[in-house]
Amino acid sequence: MSLDKNNAVEVSNGDFELINKLLSEGKTVLASVEYGKKVEESLKRGKMSDDFANIELKEKKDNCGKCGCGKTANTLVYLWR
Question: What distance in Å separates the CA atoms of residue 35 and residue 6, rounded to the nearest whole number?
């Protein structure tokens, strides 16, 4: 599928099982993540490090949810397959 920013489903609790399910259904996900080295490298590549999904930065935003790693999220990203 392609990136669909207008119909993205927001997941701000770090639930990557839900994110995987939504991506498998062809949806675009707006996910809350903690901006660190892995996310920075993924954004440069346009793909997550494990090729889980395509990734694009929406914005950096303090306290926007919880990252899958358990840390407080400070970045919103679009994910799609």
Answer: 23
Q: Phi first, then psi: what are they for 2, rounded to 5°? A: -115, 170
Q: Say how far apart CA 61 and CA 22 lie, in whole Å.
A: 23
* Partners of 57 in beta bridges: 77
Overall pTM surpassing 0.70 (yes/no): yes
Domain of 63, in residue numbers: 5-80
pLDDT digits (tens, 9 = 90+) for 36-63: 999 999 999 999 988 999 999 999 999 9
CATH assignment of the domain containing 47: 3.30.110
State the total domains in the chain: 1
